[in-house]
Amino acid sequence: MMAGCTNKLKIKLWVYAVYILSFICYVPALLEQNGIIIPYIVLYLKYLYVCIPAIVTIFLLISEQNVKVYFSQMLSGKITVKYILIWAICLGVGVLSSYCYSFIVGADVFKNIYLTVTSLLTSCIYLLITAIIEEIAWRGFLLERLSFQKRISSVIFVGVVWAVWHMPMWIIRNSLGIEQIVCLCIWTLLVSAVLGITYYQCRNILLIAILHATFNICYLAPMQYNIVVLAIVFSVGTLFYKKLEKKSLI
Fold first, then answer.
1. Cβ atoms < 10 Å from Cβ of 175
2. How far is CA 155 from the centre of its chain?
3. pLDDT digits (tens, 9 = 90+) for 169-217
4. How remote is the C-alpha of 78 from its chain's centroid?
């Protein structure tokens, strides 16, 4: 059946499957919040949430007998000095902006979140693993499936789908209000733009996962602050890249 489906239909089926299965992971927590007694072990289902897109991806690739090809594509590019520099800039800006915010409010956000070196290392490992799992699906599969001739629209599409996918976590687990969710959606779209455009350039999912984890680890100020910082970095980086392209064509 899968072999006869068009690529567009497969993408739709993938998105629907990811949304439905991801929401199911949070149904026990939602029921508990509404006063329904749920077996404690069932509540652990929410921890499967982050794995759902990758599971659906692998299932689809197995049905196509295409697993090896796709993983080869995800890792086809080399991590060069240029991409290490992009990562280093994102890392440096995140750390600097977080410390600037700490100075403004008079509280060290890093020490408040990472109480010890061990907790920092544990967070880095956990966030890198979850980033790899996510990026296999979002950039490695979904973005890879979209038109390379329409890169901007493809990046925006993935960003929107990715932001909507986070909704059960934001609403059910974190109980966030509409203002916070709007800020997180904007932040997710910005991060997705950076990850998507970088992936188109480097075609190496490991680098994208490291970059993804860096945003989660280092950008610790409130979302409104981070949005402004990342928007400035993204705009400056885009202008700088366009100038380099023009020079190379002369």
1. 9
2. 12
3. 999 999 999 999 999 999 999 999 999 999 998 999 999 999 999 999 9
4. 21
Q: How far is CA 250 from CA 206, 240, 242, 243, 246, in A?
A: 33, 16, 13, 11, 7
Percentages helix, strand, coil for the chain (3-state, rounded to 5) are 85, 0, 15
What tokens does 184 get? 């997180």
- Cα of 196 vs its chain's centroid, Å: 10
Contact of 77 with 203, CB cutoff 8 Å: yes
The two three-digit tokens of residue 237, written as one number = 């980086």
Are residues 153 and 193 in contact, defined by beta-carbon separation less than 8 angstroms? Answer: no
Query: Residues 75, 81, 85, 86: is their CA dihedral positive or negative?
Result: negative
| pLDDT tens, residue by residue, 215-232 | 999 999 999 999 999 999
Q: Which long-range contacts (CB under 8 A, 24 or more apart) does 131-134 make?
A: 131/209, 131/210, 131/212, 131/213, 131/216, 132/205, 132/206, 132/209, 133/50, 133/51, 133/54, 134/50, 134/53, 134/54, 134/209, 134/212
